[in-house]
């Protein structure tokens, strides 16, 4: 049997954590699991007013998304227009109305499309205990029992500095064969400090450090990106699943990265 506790604050929710307890975001994955008999979850903790953590606010050159903001919230906000294509790539309309930012960060392979974009945009998480942590670190540790995500802060890219591409087998919106997000700041036409993230290429979204290094100082044209395309395989160790084999994912990754970098992909 699953028990449900309703609390007022995220801190209370975190204090209720422990073995078998899960925090309820939009419930698109959690409730599906429970309804299908997931025995790992025996206790669900939810907020009485999740909309109190669903804001989108500008903070200088960054933007902060509340953990309970949904994909639909993102699509309604012109402040995060650069994330609209990403939010639109998550499930169908019913899923987007419920799926939250916090839940997407914890979504298992092959999900987590928004998390891929946030990882490329240098995301930092504010946790329920007031601490800040790099999203990259959370993805590596998956610490869910003692701290919850309160909000996520990410860079607000300018112009066409941010690009996102998702490859699916089911159109218009299926789970990812792979997804790629790229933040490509440029100085005098040369890439400076690029962040490239891949989805469905590992158990969680991952950055591609060799690709990023190969892009440093390069121009965004065929010659400039050649070295980066050749190094993609060094950064990826994709799993097999029912959508694609790891071999296939690795083979097609440079093709899609090229399209994205040359501006031929879906933004
Ligand atoms: C039919 C279908 C299609 C889907 N398509 C896609 C897709 O195309 N792309 C994609 O990325 N995903 C997809 N998903 C997966 C899912 O809907 C999204 O990833 C969604 O963002 C998960 O968020 P949620 O709020 O529903 O999470 P929940 O189901 O509420 O929670 C998921 C996990 O995250 C934890 N969690 C939630 N919020 C927090 C928080 N604030 N702090 C700490 N832990 C937290 C929960 O405890 C749970 O372990 C799909 C799901 C379904 C059912």
From TrEMBL:
Signal sequence coordinates: none
A Pfam family recorded for this sequence: FAD_binding_5
Protein name: FAD binding domain-containing protein
Domain FAD-binding PCMH-type: 1-175
Keywords: FAD, Flavoprotein, Oxidoreductase
Membrane-crossing segments per the record: none
């Amino acid at each position: 049997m699953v028990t449900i506790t309703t609390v007022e604050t995220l801190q209370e929710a975190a204090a209720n954590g422990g073995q078998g307890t899960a925090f309820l975001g939009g419930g698109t994955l959690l409730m599906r699991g429970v309804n299908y008999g997931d025995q790992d979850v025996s206790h669900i903790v939810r907020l009485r007013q999740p909309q109190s953590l669903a804001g989108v606010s500008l903070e200088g050159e960054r933007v902060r998304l509340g953990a309970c903001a949904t994909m639909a919230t993102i699509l309604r906000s012109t402040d995060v227009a650069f994330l609209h294509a990403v939010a639109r790539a998550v499930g169908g309309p019913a899923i987007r109305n419920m799926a939250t930012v916090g839940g997407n960060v914890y979504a298992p392979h092959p999900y987590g499309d928004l998390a891929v974009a946030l990882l490329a945009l240098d995301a930092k998480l504010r946790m329920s205990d007031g601490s800040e942590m790099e999203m990259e670190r959370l993805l590596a540790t998956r610490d869910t029992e003692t701290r919850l995500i309160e909000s996520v802060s990410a860079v607000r890219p300018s112009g066409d500095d941010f690009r996102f591409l998702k490859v699916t087998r089911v159109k218009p919106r299926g789970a990812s064969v792979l997804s790629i997000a790229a933040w490509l700041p440029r100085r005098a036409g040369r890439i400076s400090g690029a962040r490239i993230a891949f989805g469905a290429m590992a158990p969680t979204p991952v950055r591609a450090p060799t690709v990023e290094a190969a892009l440093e100082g390069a121009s965004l044209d065929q010659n400039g990106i050649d070295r980066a395309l050749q190094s993609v395989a060094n950064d990826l160790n994709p799993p097999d699943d029912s959508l694609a084999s790891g071999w296939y994912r690795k083979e097609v990754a440079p093709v899609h990265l090229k399209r994205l970098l040359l501006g031929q992909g879906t933004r």
